[in-house]
Specification:
Blueprint (H helix, E strand, L loop, with lengths): L8 E6 L4 E8 L2 E9 L5
Antiparallel strand pairs: 1-2, 2-3
Length: 42
């Protein structure tokens, strides 16, 4: 049996009415962040 190392990766998605925010955390530290703006048509 192969043991895989534990990976502490968390993806956070915060949806909103005018924008959504997405962040990637590794080992408790934020490594990426994006903000997606929504048009009124969405």
């Amino acid at each position: 049996m192969t043991m895989h190392p534990k990976r502490d990766v968390v993806i956070v998605i915060n949806p909103g009415s005018t924008s959504s925010k997405i962040a990637l955390f590794k080992a408790g530290k934020m490594v990426a962040e994006r903000t997606l703006n929504h048009s009124l048509a969405e």
